[in-house]
Automatic annotation (TrEMBL):
Pfam families: GalP_UDP_tr_C (PF02744), GalP_UDP_transf (PF01087). Its main location: cytoplasm. The keyword Nucleotidyltransferase applies. GO terms for cellular component: cytoplasm. It is an enzyme of class 2 (transferase). This is Galactose-1-phosphate uridylyltransferase. The gene is galT.
Length: 493
């Protein structure tokens, strides 16, 4: 069977198209790939693999240019053929939801994989492992899934006329968007619409997922990130409406926030992060909220955990804590609410349902800088930036490191250095490599060396989180944390 025939057969089998549509579909494929593909044979079988071969044939036929952008645009267009239109996707979702919310979510997740919106083949390239720490196991991921633009495409992107459509990658207007050199192809993208507090929101999956069923809940309007009482209301509404999923928000200030601060959104998914498994190291009850279980989590960052049957109690208490934190200062431990009117304090909130109760983790954030730490006092410090120098956002806060692709080769280089196969490593790893060599002077086994280096990366990530923690894991730090808690108001023992 030819490549086109096989692809069209799969499209018919996995969509609402019927056998009568075969000629039409064939012509749609030829229009995108080129007539020269008509006689090409294939040994491949899976839909996404067939799509990938069609894309490469289009490059060979010079129907599209030989670039990552052109490949992504054509690939998304081809997979749009197996993707129902947005209205149908939404009708199907909500019709199923009335019978089983879990089934509706599962069906949408399967669709987003089947149509290659979730890039499973790319995600499989990631290096992921766990390492023990003083705070439980941490998760490490070296992110290899996102294709890197080549220099020609980077140069071309600079020449593209500025466009405000879509305004950002989280806007509803991305649904079905063709794509361009500086904006991803989204022909096969679908978004579930739902309402929160009278406003339209969207639910979609992340194409380059960092964890199981990694999804995004996005504001239907292009509004900036803002942590407020509404954040707690929405997060708890989401975990109620989307059973089995947690929901969390990046902070809304630079340095401690995520990569997109211009569009309000939350992230979620079906994953148990290390922070969720961390126990309370001190429990208490807040005044006026005696029914809410509360405490400080044993975690390198400064986390208050609130648990209750009552969403309203959690929302009210979380808002009290947020308002108090925004204005709270304790110069004895470098905690300042503002400098010359510039605010420093916010919260990274995470919501979940556990054992039938609602739970909120509130991570206290402070984005001060100083001459000693110009990137941020509560940001990875210089001595660990060779591993992680980017902002510590929601996912890292919860104990999952997202590390840059360069580390794949660099970790192997350091391992070779430890067993004497190399004289040096990249300069920013040299001190680290020398320290490892001192502690492991007689290493000869490359695999053993690689494990030592990977474990060390995990240890450094724990330090990264400690750097980002406002109240340190010291007697002084924890005493200062309790001073803030007491300022909010707790019941005496």
């Amino acid at each position: 069977m030819t490549l086109v025939d096989k692809f069209v057969t799969h499209v018919i089998a996995e969509s609402s198209f019927e056998e009568m549509d075969r000629i039409y579909l064939t012509n749609r494929v030829l229009a995108r790939v080129g007539d020269g593909v008509l006689e090409v044979e294939t040994n491949l079988d899976k839909l996404i693999n067939l799509k990938d071969q069609l894309v490469e044939e289009a490059v060979q036929l010079e129907t599209i240019e030989d670039s990552q952008t052109a490949r992504e645009i054509l690939g998304a267009e081809l997979m749009d053929l197996v993707t129902p239109c947005p209205s149908q996707v939404n009708r199907d979702f909500w019709a199923t939801y009335t019978q089983s919310p879990e089934k509706a979510i599962e069906d949408f997740y399967q669709l987003s994989q089947k149509n290659d919106y979730i890039k499973l083949k790319a995600i499989a390239k990631n290096i992921a492992y766990r390492v023990p720490s003083d705070y439980g196991e941490l998760e490490i991921t070296i992110n290899l899934s996102k294709p890197e633009k080549d220099p020609k495409e980077i140069a071309a992107a600079k020449l593209v006329q500025a466009s405000n459509y879509p305004q950002c990658q989280l806007c509803l207007e991305n649904e079905g968007y063709h794509g361009r050199v500086n904006h991803p192809a989204r022909s096969n993208h679908r978004i579930i619409r739902f309402e929160m507090a009278g406003q339209e929101w969207g639910f979609q999956y992340s194409p380059y997922a960092y964890f199981n069923e990694h999804c995004i809940f996005l504001d239907g309007q292009h509004r900036p990130m803002a942590i407020s009482r509404h954040s707690f209301e929405r997060l708890l509404a989401i975990v109620e409406q989307f059973p089995g999923y947690f929901a969390g928000s990046n902070a809304d200030l630079p340095i401690v926030g995520g990569s997109i601060l211009t569009h309000d959104h939350y992230q979620g998914g079906r994953h148990i992060f290390p922070m969720e498994l961390a126990p309370l190291q001190k429990a208490f009850r807040f005044t006026g909220f005696e029914q809410v279980k509360a405490g400080i989590v044993k975690w390198p960052m400064s986390v208050l955990r609130l648990t209750s049957d009552s969403k309203e109690d959690l929302i009210n208490l979380a808002d009290n804590i947020l308002q108090e934190w925004r204005q709270y200062s304790d110069p004895s431990v470098q905690v300042l609410a503002e400098t010359d009117g510039t605010p420093h304090h916010t919260i990274t909130p995470i919501a979940r349902k556990r054992d039938g109760q609602f739970e909120l983790d509130l991570v206290l954030r402070d984005n001060q800088t100083s001459p000693e730490h110009p990137d941020g006092i509560y940001h990875p410090h210089k001595d660990v930036q060779h591993i992680k120098k980017e902002n510590i956002g929601l996912i890292e806060v919860m104990g999952l490191a997202i590390l840059p692709p360069r580390l794949k080769a660099e970790v192997e280089q350091v391992a070779s250095y430890l067993v004497g196969d190399g004289d040096a490593v990249v300069d920013y790893h040299q001190e680290w490599a020398d320290q490892l060599r001192v502690h492991h002077p007689d290493l000869t086994d490359k695999e053993k060396a690689l494990e030592i280096v990977k474990d060390s990366v995990g240890t450094i990530f724990a330090r990264v989180l400690e750097d980002a923690g406002v109240y340190k894991q010291t007697e002084q730090g924890q005493a200062a944390f309790m001073r803030f808690v007491e300022q909010v108001g707790i019941l005496s023992d």
